[in-house]
Amino acid sequence: MEKTAKPRSRLCTLCNEKRAALKRPKTLEQICRECFYTVFEDEIHRVIVDNQLFKPGERIAIGASGGKDSTVLAYVMSELNRRHNYGLDLFLLSVDEGITGYRDDSLETVKRNEIQAGKKSC
């Protein structure tokens, strides 16, 4: 009985060092996690700069639900603001509808994100 060879793990097409973790739908490139983070943040930065989305000194509210999407947005904006010196005053904005038990956990998550990122919240 003949053994079939296991398919080898593909390397990242960008760094060619680490094992590819995902295939980007946009480009079909197979890339590692680290390269994905770099490409993701670089693309967001290019959109911000190319479209002149912000001016230094502007106050920018980030809608924060406590979920993964708003948490990633808050993190990336904070990181890019620091790294590229956009000069933005970022703060988290979350709505408490006043319904007991409805938003309690997510508001606690927003507060934790605020402390970790050093942003203000409203």
TrEMBL record:
| InterPro entries (alphabetical) | Rossmann-like_a/b/a_fold
Q: Does the keyword Lipid metabolism apply?
A: no
A GO MF term: transferase activity
Q: Keyword Phosphoprotein on this protein?
A: no
Q: Which GO terms describe its cellular component?
A: cytosolic tRNA wobble base thiouridylase complex; mitochondrion
Which keywords does this Swiss-Prot/TrEMBL entry list? Transferase
Q: Which GO terms describe its biological process?
A: tRNA wobble position uridine thiolation
* PANTHER family to which the protein is assigned, alphabetical: ATPASES OF THE PP SUPERFAMILY-RELATED (PTHR11807), CYTOPLASMIC TRNA 2-THIOLATION PROTEIN 1 (PTHR11807:SF12)
Put simply, this protein is called Cytoplasmic tRNA 2-thiolation protein 1
**Protein source organism:** Solanum verrucosum
